[in-house]
């Protein structure tokens, strides 16, 4: 699809200018932007805007109830637009003493750039800018398709405002496909392509049975909040790991045959996980590739339980209050609002009207791109060209992200990943880094997608 | 039973010398003796020994692995001996700012002596010395029965060494009955007589499913320690509050008809507890006098559960470790060692071999004196004489205390309570006090028991 001479010109451009892009990444990483602490946010947003303006993008900085969102658009030769989702905020750098070089003093050593945000997500963002530059250079200064960047300022704190923002700017964000953040390669160098994430509902259950804790010598008459909470939790999920809430599975769309083929084509991680985590038995006794398939099952996970005396040693007390935090990971086509209503109705039905249920954090919906979407094929195919390895395609992964906030409101666009990460780049941890070869290959991959996305549009329209 | 002129002489003596005994109580309370902190222990033990020596008791101070035990004996006219169990240690006085007068600067105001230990248990101990003095005065310097005092130094920290001590000194402690500490009157002025306490087994359950907590996006495959612990807890007790451990109830001796009559004669506390504690529903839906009867059922109480993230807000994590602390309150004739073995066997049978069970704190056995024992009748009858109110007899109360450590090794002796407490004396709390009228009546009651115990011996032998 991609003209051979165009590809050669893209690669030549990126090879010639690689050092400049690493320097640009270092410049962006030197600007702290810790959303959890509100540190350097405005400055970093302005720097991102400047980097985009320098490339002729039409840039807008939008205020939200939280941190600003940067949206930048450049027209292309085709009517079609490819959207990139990135974020300029980073995780807190602590503990500082574990960093070899300081987190906001970017340093190149051993073929990698070390800094907070080097990979997640500033390096990835700059690699995409490099790809834009390279594609323009290969096309005499034009872009074969339109390009829109959405650069979030709150990804590391759960993007609480992005869904609303998208809803309010549907025309501005109109596109025919999106490349999400956080792609990369697996330990064996295979490019990894993620097509779906699960949704999430996070709730707190709390029970209060008395005004205060009481002496456990009265346990024959006074109601224990811990036991009460346990009964409520027990009503939510059975020992067979099946969620007992009526209707919970009603909307579940099972994986397609292709999804299962893709899952079965992924490596068998059983021994790796057993060794790394010391797991004796997996959920439902699963082994081997069944562990991969299980991602299409929704979960009901206890994140915490707190009841009674939390100190050392014995204390004889009847807890008056008990709380548990739970998250449900939801698969297509479950809806967190619907699940929340069903949890409440179920507890009421079971007589647990005294169990309070509150939502914590923002809900997220599942999102999944069909594996036969042309963008998936383009991304997989160009990945194989760049990395000389077959692409690994995960139709669904366990965690959640706000892909749903874009995919559905923007008309069911395909959303895929392609990036600069590798398994050991210390994202969210001390000594975060991006390997220069991964940055380089990541930019080459994105440029090929950009180039192909335009051609793709002609093929499919 | 008690000769009228003897009783009159006892009362006259106590009336005449009341101020001196309050002063003696103040002297003892001025000596701190906080076992939880090891503060003033030796000094207080020596002061107790001196108070007993001054009265011609043969006093021995025994070292234990913890604090000293004082044992004092005085011969009487009869072969029979009555044993008094008291303790010289006190609860920590904190928070100090809530005391009107300082805890170790005893102060008389509004008809009461305020000090840490004024009621629990120094005032009670001195009231018993006063009773000894009064009985001697009424009997021309002799005691009608032998008297042995055991004054513990670790009652407020669970008497970890008293059972072993008794086992090693069976001859020294030989007696035909005992008056336990912590008696008194109820809110309506009825003397209260406690005949039994439950035993206790305290355990910790812990489960570890992985080396470390993991992201909850993997909950479809990774084992959650909180859910695992819940399943184990669920196997121990059903929603019907029935303990599911095989054989748990095998040794349970049901209350006798007399026990039930006594329980039914106690006040109905339902409304009082509902209001005070805000309880909507009692265990097993009990109401009214059924609440009293329930004390003869053993319990399985969750004292605490801890699993996962304990901070504010949401965190998406699969807990790798979960722990719960439980106490079982045991009724006659359950045995904490036996119950412990059954818990372990049951968990193994149910497949919970991965759930670790450890014992915390010292176990205690249940103990109960038969309500038709002559000492019970004597204590009830003399209580009615002193307080002009019928005695309330509790055949069993919910908490535990080391009565078993004396009652069984010393040959199944009867153990009852009679003392100086009332419901609002702030034991264990700031502004602990003993009302002087309660001190006075408590001494009068004990003196009558002492006097009657000797006569009782002639009647029953």
CATH superfamily placement of the largest domain in chain A: Zn peptidases
Number of domains of chain A: 2
Q: Name the largest protein-protein interface in this structure.
A: A-B, 71 and 71 residues
Helix count, DSSP H or I runs of 4 or more residues of chain A:
12
State the end-to-end distance of chain A.
15 Å
According to DSSP, the number of beta strands of chain A is 20
Biggest beta sheet summary of chain A: 6 strands, mixed
CATH architecture name of the largest domain in chain A: 3-Layer(aba) Sandwich
Helix and strand composition category of chain A? alpha+beta
Q: Assign the CATH topology of the largest domain in chain A.
A: Aminopeptidase
Task: State the CATH class of the largest domain in chain A.
Answer: Alpha Beta
Name the average pLDDT of chain A. Answer: 95
Q: What fraction of residues of chain A sit in β-strands?
A: 15-25%
Low-pLDDT residue intervals, each spanning 5 or more residues of chain A: 457-461
Shape of chain A: globular
| Helical amount of chain A | 25-40%
Radius of gyration of chain A: 24 Å
In spatial order, strands of the major sheet of chain A run 1-2-6-3-7-19
**Oligomeric state of the chains in view:** homodimer
